[in-house]
Amino acid sequence: MALKKSELYSSLWQSCDELRGGMDASQYKDYVLVLLFIKYVSDKYAGIPYAPITIPNGASFKDMVALKGKPDIGDQINKKIIAPLANANKLSDMPDFNDPNKLGSGDEMVKKLTNLIAIFENKALDFSKNRAEGDDILGDAYEYLMRHFATQSGKSKGQFYTPAEVSRVIAQIIGIHEAKTTSATTVYDPACGSGSLLLKVGDEAGTAVTLYGQEKDAATSGLARMNMILHNNPTALIVQGNTLSAPQFKEGDTLKTFDYVIANPPFSDKRWSNGIDPLNDPYNRFQPFGTPPGKQGDYAYLLHIVRSLKSQGKGACILPHGVLFRGHAEADIRRNLVRKGYIQGIIGLPANLFFGTGIPACIVVVDKQEAHTRKGIFMIDASEGFMKDGPKNRLRSQDIHKIVDVFNKRQEVQKYARMVSVEEIEKNEFNLNLPRYIDSQMPEDLQDIEGHLKGGIPVADVEALQRYWEVCPNLQQVLFKANRPGYLDLTVDKSTIKPTIYEHPEFATFITDMNRHFAAWRKKSAKRLKALQAGCHPKEIIFGLSEDLLAHYRGKPLMNHYDVYQHLMDYWSDTMQDDCYLIAAEGWKAETSRIIETKKGKDGKPGKQVDKGWACDLIPKPLIVARYFPKEQKAIDQLTVELENTIAQITELEEEHGGEDGAFSEARTDAEEGKEGKVTKATVTKRLKEIEEDKEAEDEASVLSKWLEYNNQQADLKKQLKDAEASLDAKAYAQYPKLTEDEIKTLAVDDKWLATLEKDIHGEMDRISQALTQRVKELAERYENPIPQQVCTVVELEEKVNGHLEKMGFAWK
């Protein structure tokens, strides 16, 4: 069975649980990621001559397995595995596997390390057989773990991980993909953390480029080196040290310059000047623009980036929003950067994206190539495009795509993006705060005073729905009629607004056209997807598929093509991605597997194994049933309905004849404290025998006999249902070996993938009609009762109340 991404992730996260009790996430991540690294490079390179990674004899994962259970396992791992592997590959800052403070001592350490190694022994984690190599399943797993570790590590470690979504934005806006890159093209990150941002930019290049990174934290720089290897960049040069006080990449006495420089430095670093004299910087980073303030290091990193770029270089830096408007020394630096023409663009991001801080950040895009001709700065306010992801916010696929599209095409989008001239910026005293230039606030829903006084829906509110009337030009006349100049009345009852819209011929035509539009894309995509073969690259698949879908819906009325795109990306993440990795590894195979659940035994040890049935990842059972056994399923559905009806009849009978004097009062089990006794077959049968000769209890006997009849009917239906389900289960199970490759393709592509997408995208039609319905209803309710009418109603009601009070002998004044 091929390795599914989701299974890999859950297995690795399980390994974290083995260590969780002894240390926080920032510590145990080192052990888990090192084991992942050793397992991967051992599977991939052990015994292979001239491999980019050397695996010394006796230092592979298999050799580590041999140490399980040994009393000195931690010491042996350090000496026999870690040290030789690190020395052979120039790796440093590896974690100590014999640290009793973190791993416990004696048996505790032995058990913990033995269990941790055992998790990586899972046969499914055989990375030598990963045929989807170009998709870097291990690199993605590493990234997944880093995200989770950053989430749990608290404030101090969030700075070492840049969310992958933000990394993708930067990688796609600095222009590296369009450039003619070679191995001589250089990419540098002066605060590289675990290397995720650097890798994303390198990957976007499309060809092998040379990666450089510096990281102050020793342990994190070690993780970055391993990350480079896991991402198939073993030649990347990662060094440890403080970039600002001791930059490691130099050419003589000056800083080395690069084609691309990107960074996510620590926000507002208060200790940035430790070890240097900012006024006499030997690398001339600050003097041309101004010296950053001692307690705010943001511009120190940005100026380091500017100085590290070649004359034609491009870069991007993630910084807190404060850099756009803070005054004093930073205002001088900002003015000089703008006048120099180095700032190409600014992208405002949502708040709470980054680990360790909730403040909003921005991406400052630097471009030296066109600095001398730059007449403006392109600004994007993307602060409203995100989804909630636990305690943090997260950019969705559609948010990333929209930012990249708008920035790269320099599209001016109302309330989102515009090109701001240097002259306008100068008038604002070089304050670059985005709200000064982009009003991203939604327009206020204004109340019409005349409408509230005299009634009637303002024509202006109806005309604001113009995008709907463009698609359905006659629908407006069906919904509204003239009241007086400037005001309209609703012509239909509020309860019929939705059916009026949905059933209108023009809206029906719109839905038909959209369904036909999807069908055209579905037909084309089905052919492409059914042509997939073992060894295909899932990331290439989803890129081509999603870009095609996005283009297919671009410009369609009422439909937001980015919303449609998001449906596909969500389904890809949830289901389709794993399916494509299965196909990439094994081809079109629909293999079933038993679901074995191990129950907990005594003392927490594994207990009895229970067979919980079977499953098939690529072709789930419901697809087989729907296509090959619809009659059997229909019979089961009918039995289910009959059973539910019978249960309802029993419940109704018990409720109707319950209570102290009811027919079931003497036909219950003994009552527990605070609870009423239960009605059972035994108690009912017993009670019927007791009143068998009692003519006065004929009504009670009739009710109890009826209950017994229903109960027997329920038992019979349950048995029929159980037998029918077991029979269908056996038939479905037996169908899998009979499936041809073409049938598997039809089930996966037509019945599963595209059917789900069609349902999701069709839901957009419901959303569109619901949005229009809600707005029309809202306007109708807002103005249906004018204030004078409400006053009259109040007066009438007050008179009625006073009248009732007088009748009861009260005088109300």
From TrEMBL:
EC number: 2.1.1.72
Catalytic activity: a 2'-deoxyadenosine in DNA + S-adenosyl-L-methionine = an N(6)-methyl-2'-deoxyadenosine in DNA + S-adenosyl-L-homocysteine + H(+)
Domain named N6 adenine-specific DNA methyltransferase N-terminal: residues: 10-120
Molecular function via GO: site-specific DNA-methyltransferase (adenine-specific) activity
Chain ranges passing through the membrane: none
InterPro entries, A to Z: D12N6_MeTrfase_N (IPR022749), DNA_Adenine_Mtase (IPR051537), DNA_methylase_A-5 (IPR003356), DNA_methylase_N6_adenine_CS (IPR002052), Restrct_endonuc_T1M (IPR004546), SAM-dependent_MTases_sf (IPR029063), T1MK-like_N_sf (IPR038333)
Pfam family, one: HsdM_N
Region (Disordered): 655-678
The UniProt record lists the keyword S-adenosyl-L-methionine: yes
Domain named DNA methylase adenine-specific: residues: 135-441
Tree of life domain: Bacteria
GO-annotated biological processes: methylation
Keywords associated with the record: Methyltransferase, Restriction system, S-adenosyl-L-methionine, Transferase
Compositionally biased spans, kind Basic and acidic residues: 667-678
PANTHER family: SLR6095 PROTEIN, TYPE I RESTRICTION ENZYME MJAVIII METHYLASE SUBUNIT
Record-stated family: Belongs to the N(4)/N(6)-methyltransferase family.
Protein name (Swiss-Prot/TrEMBL): site-specific DNA-methyltransferase (adenine-specific)
